[in-house]
Amino acid sequence: MDYPALFFATHVPTNASIRITSSASSFGGAVLADYSLGGGFSLGARLEYIGTTGSNNLLYGPGSGAFAVTVAPAYQYRYFFLRGGFAWVRVRANNVTAGLGLVPRDEQLTDAPNH
What we know:
By secondary structure, the chain is mainly beta. The protein has strands at residues 5-12, 24-38, 41-54, 65-77, 80-83, 86-92. Mean pLDDT is 82; it is low at 111-115.
């Protein structure tokens, strides 16, 4: 079983010539896992977080963030493979710009009706 970890950070400085009037940053990381089940079957998983600071929109709105859990079962035969993916995403909803989140702004993210 492998457990690689990834981390990143970005910074967008002010630049009046392209109308960026204030700076913003993003940061995040992920931990990945892959487990071989034998017979060509494997199970991958990933935990991820991304967050932003500043007043510019780098994700779902200024200061927004998201956390995700993904599970990806796979089957491989020689050079061919089939992989599925199942994910759960939670958006930090205190600053989601209308239309950029996963559901309309007036719905509860945890209690969204089936559409």
